[in-house]
Design a protein that fits this description.
Helices cover about 40% and strands about 15% of the residues. Strands 3-2-1-4-5-6-9-10 form an 8-stranded mixed sheet, with helices on both faces. Strands 7-8 form a two-stranded parallel sheet. The longest helix has 23 residues. The N terminus is likely disordered.
Length: about 325
Amino acid sequence: MTIPPTIGSAVSGSRPTAEQIVSGSDLTGRTCVITGASSGLGLESARVLARAGAHIVLTARRAGAAEEAAAEIRRETPSARLSTVVLDLASLDGIRAAAARIAELAPVVDVLMNNAGVMFTPFDRTADGFELQLGTNHLGHFELTRLLLDRLRAAEGARIVILASEGYRIADVDLADPHWEKRDYDKFRAYGASKTANILHAVELDRRLRADGIRVCAVHPGRVATRLARHLTRADVAAIPVERSGPPRRSGPDSGVLTPQEGAATQVWAAVRPEPLGLDGVYFANCAAEPAVADYAVNPDRAAELWELSERLCR
């Protein structure tokens, strides 16, 4: 297994693609589990990592979607090592069944890419009564990650990459009312809270796992043209509230709308770069650590509180 040095495109003002990130890499012998791998950033990540030789476990909510994605990758890379697993992140029972199947397929997991998510959905609840966006984006991945920890510990230097978003700036997570039982529902703030939860999850997870050689980060892919925004109307776009707590993040090469090939670059980079992540922070964008993060999203005490709440909810 060889991985070339990280390319420097992110600092030069250009937009690297995920394929450029892994160009020249040999990931033979590594296993990557990717949630939401049937389209968008997940499919692009699976495509380039499979081409580099990794065994990819593609998960999707529908079995047919996962199989279609695998067939698409095999058309391009006939030798690709692919497995498919049905994973419904809105059901704890479904997550547990999927984790058991992944454990059968992969005794060792080198990379867990928590990529799947929903955005700006109308009010709904998961099978376990969680608000849908927090339940899917955070709690579903929280439980999946917990169930795969033994497989991650079996690897040398495993990585967990959690897809966050600058949308976290819309709202902090309300630990006293995470499921909107005491407030009028706001789909924008619910999404922002779920993305804040993603970053806080990375903070506490990295603290707990670094002694095991596992590093964790959250990444912002940029504004990407995918199906994730399918619930948005034109009126919604104009109505999105943005509360920029703390200094605004620096402008960079993701300032416009990116293709999935460009958007997947940072999560692939975080998964395979040869150097230790360093992690002067746990939030990355443009294939580099993002220094301008609102304090509430990286506060270690809040991260620990969210962890305790998530454990209680997922029991």
